[in-house]
Design brief:
70% helix; 0% strand
């Protein structure tokens, strides 16, 4: 119904001038999303069989899809700027951080004390300023706000990926995990 909703609506006796092709979900978005999920799952499975966290295989699958243009394949290019894909990606990050944040335990973090706080702060500050610096170096004509945005994005991404690696390795509940910067940072982000 979603795929053909605009076609059915346009086929009714409504005036042709009121049909809006901008509404509705383009079928290629669904195909692209399906391909991304399949590639991520296959990459994750492959890396798990190699004894690595599944998230690494999923990331490499995304990198491959994102750079298919280097091999002359342009089918994925429209998906890079699609609003539906962007919204789903943002929801995915929020769910990942929320899920790992639910597993955070304040007592465990307090048990590792100040070293945990120091590592957490450095785990946020370092990616932020490194992202800002690299952005300023590679795209010097952009505004300072754009560089800050890129630094903040890399900071949040590094926290999510680290948390997911701990989860994939089954180490999220160990004593070492709270002293790493993933769980304290997640607590700062989520307010758990």
């Amino acid at each position: 119904m979603l795929l053909f909703g605009t076609v059915v609506w346009a086929a009714t006796d409504a005036p042709a001038a009121t049909t809006d092709a901008g509404h509705g979900l383009h079928p290629m978005v669904l195909v692209g999303l399906a391909v991304m999920l399949i590639v991520a799952k296959l990459g994750g499975e492959l890396f798990e069989r190699l004894g690595q966290p599944a998230v690494l295989g999923e990331l490499i699958g995304g990198i491959v899809i994102g750079n298919l243009i280097l091999f002359g394949v342009t089918a994925a290019e429209p998906l890079k700027t699609d609003g539906v894909i962007a919204a789903i990606a943002e929801l995915g990050v929020i769910i990942l951080l929320f899920e790992v944040g639910l597993e955070s335990n304040l007592k465990e973090m307090m048990a590792v004390g100040w070293s945990s706080l120091l590592v957490a702060m450095l785990g946020v500050i370092a990616p932020f300023f490194l992202g800002w610096g690299v952005s300023a170096y590679f795209i010097p004509d952009e505004s300072r706000l754009a560089h800050i945005f890129i630094g903040a994005t890399l900071c949040a991404t590094s926290v999510g990926i680290t948390a997911r690696v701990f989860k994939d390795l089954g180490k999220l509940a160990t004593r070492e995990a709270p002293s790493s910067w993933a769980r304290p940072c997640l607590t700062m982000y989520l307010g758990s």
